[in-house]
Specification:
It is built from 14 helices and twelve strands. The protein is α/β, with parallel strands linked by helices. It has one domain: Alkaline Phosphatase, subunit A. The strands form two sheets. An eight-stranded mixed sheet has the order 4-3-5-1-6-7-2-8, sandwiched between helices. A four-stranded antiparallel sheet has the order 9-10-11-12, with helices on one face. A hairpin with a 2-residue loop joins strand 10 and strand 11. The longest helix is centred in the middle third of the chain and has 26 residues.
């Protein structure tokens, strides 16, 4: 009798464990070039914690965001939609003629525009909101553009409404404690949780600890580059602390950790600002990122050769949590081998920093792009980029996009543009 009772209790415990949705930790780096990791082959940069995470994950080295600007990119990560679908295509509302940016950011018109952007996000639907039906608690930290964290469906958070994060920007640079406190609270309540860890790192200001800067001053081409490299190293340290906290608290087996960056960054060695072919550009220097998914016992660690994209994270995580997609989404479940292996093409779009017409995504468009296998076509929007030409690159042989092949391959340009137009033609 006792043996039967113990077996019954064990069966109930096993069933409950199987029904428990996984915790989710989203690590989102900020202004970070796709090749600036040890595991991606960088000669000098040390990222031991991210290297370890990559080795323990299904890692897509050919990952991409949809847009090379942080606000629309983050909006895609949290909604699973392209910018022209969620409509948060730009960082800020349109600047009235003659207004200075700093003054405009303190004006009622600016606040009205930001309110419209927050409404766009709410209408699109967000991952934290969708997970609430499964009882998830969720924490926002770091970069967050859409006013109070609750506007994104988070139950807990740091950002109170500032332009791109206010108090949330303390995470990583000053403290990790809000994340640890939240995880403790979720454990106490026996609730599954989502953590949005999006520190403003390695994003400027590049103010790394001296001990890290000293590691790179003799190796980098300039002090500006050394500071950026040291910021990457510092960010890596915080990721290691976060993952260790998860693992040390017995949460490793039932926690999915995903990694992505919001957009790329290449440091101009003379100025310390971003170089032309990185942030805000149509090139891989602004668009490409490794994407990792760690779920011990559920996801086999591997370096996967397929294309992956930021639109894939929401459908992947919803499926893992046992939540039905509330509406069709363009992304794939990155844990569905058949779907991932069948994909050969991805799409994206880049827009103006400030909206042109906040209600019309096409008005702010600068470029659309398509990657088909190793071919990448970039098509400019003439209204905003009147001097630009169509560009075609062979990413396998020309990963930094130096040689435009469009003039020599008219048929390929025509074919790829037809696919691009079928995806979205404004």
């Amino acid at each position: 009798m006792i043996r039967l009772l113990l077996l019954s209790l064990l069966a109930i415990a096993t069933l409950r464990a199987a029904d428990t949705p996984p915790n989710i930790v989203m690590i989102i780096s900020d202004d970070h070039l796709w090749s600036d990791y040890g595991f991606m082959g960088h000669t000098h940069l040390q990222t031991p914690n991210l290297d370890r995470l990559a080795a323990e994950s299904r890692t897509f080295k050919r990952g991409y965001v949809t847009s090379s600007l942080c606000c629309p990119s983050l909006a895609t990560i949290v909604t699973g939609l392209y910018p022209h679908q969620h409509k948060v295509t730009s960082n800020d509302p349109a600047i009235p003629a003659g207004a200075k940016p700093r003054e405009f950011q303190r004006s009622p018109a600016f606040e009205a525009g930001r309110e419209t952007m927050s409404q766009f996000l709410e209408s699109a639907g967000t991952l934290p909101k969708m997970l609430q039906q499964k009882g998830y608690l969720s924490l926002q930290t770091g970069k967050w553009w859409q006013k109070h964290y609750s506007r994104g469906g988070f139950t807990h958070g740091m950002t109170e409404g500032g332009r791109h994060g206010d108090k949330g920007l303390d995470i990583g640079r000053k403290t990790m404690q809000p994340v640890y406190d939240f995880i403790g609270e979720a454990k106490k309540q026996q609730k599954p949780f989502l953590v949005w860890y999006a520190p403003m790192m390695p994003h400027d200001p590049h103010t790394p600890p001296k001990r890290l800067l000293d590691k790179y001053l003799g190796k980098a081409p300039s002090e500006h580059v050394a500071k950026y490299w040291a910021m990457v190293d510092w960010f890596d340290e915080t990721c290691g602390e976060l993952v260790k906290h998860i693992d040390d608290n017995g949460l490793k087996e039932n926690t999915i950790i995903v990694y992505i960056t919001d957009n790329g960054w290449i440091t101009n060695p003379k100025t310390g600002r971003y170089a032309d072919k990185s942030k805000q550009s149509q090139y891989d220097g602004g668009l490409r990122t490794p994407i990792m998914i760690r779920w011990p016992g559920k996801v086999k660690p591997e370096m996967h050769p397929a294309l992956a994209q930021s639109i894939d994270l929401v459908p992947t995580l919803l499926k893992a949590a046992g939540v039905e997609n509330p509406k069709p989404m363009p992304g794939l479940n990155l844990l569905d081998d058949a779907a991932v292996n069948a994909r050969t093409t991805i799409y994206g779009e880049c827009f103006t920093h400030n909206f042109v017409d906040i209600q019309n995504p096409a008005s702010s468009l600068k470029w659309r792009w398509i990657i088909d296998g190793n071919d990448k076509l970039i098509v400019p929007a003439k209204a905003n980029q009147p001097e630009d030409v169509t560009e075609l690159y062979d990413l396998q042989n020309d990963p930094t996009e130096e040689k435009n092949l469009a003039a020599d391959h008219a048929d390929k340009v025509k074919s790829l543009q037809a696919k691009l137009d079928a995806w979205w033609k404004p």
